[in-house]
Amino acid sequence: MALEIVRLPVLRDNYVFVLADRDGGQAAVVDPAVAAPVIDWLEAAGCELTVVLQTHHHSDHIGGTPELLQRWPRAEVWAAASDRERIPFQTRSLADGDRLELLGRPVEVLLVPGHTRAHLAYVLPASGDAGPELFCGDTLFAGGCGRLFEGTPAQLFSSLERLAALPGDTRVWCAHEYTEANLRFAASVDPANNDLQQRITAVAALRAAGTATVPSRIDLERATNPFLRCRTPALQRAMGQQDPVAVLAELRRRKDGF
């Protein structure tokens, strides 16, 4: 069974992702910032919401969940056990390394702190003809990463290394359309990266056509995302640092003021 993954643009630049088994009439949703577009899509598709996956507690990721639970009160809510106080409506409390099943697909839970202290990512490994998928919230972005609100540079570096180690064909479903701005910053610190220059051209064409840049891919991020390239000599020289954690910290500092 192949899951359909639908990207719903909401708010100013958020994406909510719906995973649907239309044949079975069931669906899951990742980080519903608001409820109305999700309800509209599910009702039009004739699908029942069975699971809400939360990556972290920020309001633009959990804001729509209470209303969705009013409409589908039997739906499970998956979230970090260590974030129970901030996501109190969770029904399945998760920890790093948990393995579950979602609409017939296996799911692995990764704890990826940095943006927040209890941030989760959900990995759907390749299954049959379906390739691997990553739902990473605000830890990894197309061309960038999330701000360090609660974690340390060392934690975020470790989290990004973990995501970068996923298979190269893993699709990266990050929660915001930040790619153009992220790549402008990337070019300022990694100007000799030909892969990055090609990506900037491709993304500009997509955005000019009104097309989303999400999902990305892990192999593309490895090649062009400076936050995944902290071990490269060019970026180490540009940041004046040799330790990759220090490189990431300096990149993040500069990006915050870019």
Q: What is the strand and helix layout of this fold?
A:
Elements: E1 4-10, E2 14-21, E3 26-30, H1 36-45, E4 48-53, H2 59-62, H3 65-71, E5 76-80, E6 92-94, E7 99-102, E8 105-111, E9 120-124, E10 133-137, E11 140-141, E12 144-145, H4 153-164, E13 171-174, H5 179-189, H6 194-208, E14 216-217, H7 218-224, H8 233-239, H9 244-256
Parallel strand pairs: 3-4, 4-5, 5-6, 10-13
Antiparallel strand pairs: 1-2, 2-3, 7-8, 8-9, 9-10, 11-12, 13-14
Helix pairs in contact: 4-9, 5-6
Concise structural overview:
The chain has 258 residues and is α/β, with parallel strands linked by helices. It is built from 9 helices and 14 strands.
Main-sheet strand order equals: 1-2-3-4-5-6
Broad shape: globular
Mean pLDDT: 97
Helix residue percentage: 25-40%
- The N- to C-terminal Cα distance equals 44 Å
Runs in which pLDDT lies below 50 for 5 or more consecutive residues are none
Q: Fill in the CATH topology.
A: Metallo-beta-lactamase, Chain A
CATH superfamily: Ribonuclease Z/Hydroxyacylglutathione hydrolase-like
Find the structural class using helix and strand composition.
Answer: alpha/beta
The total beta strand count reads 14
- Report the biggest beta sheet as strand number plus sense, adding barrel if it closes: 6 strands, mixed
Q: Give the count of helical stretches.
A: 9
Return the domain count: 1
Output the CATH class name. Alpha Beta
Rg calc? 18 Å
What is the level-2 CATH architecture name?
A: 4-Layer Sandwich
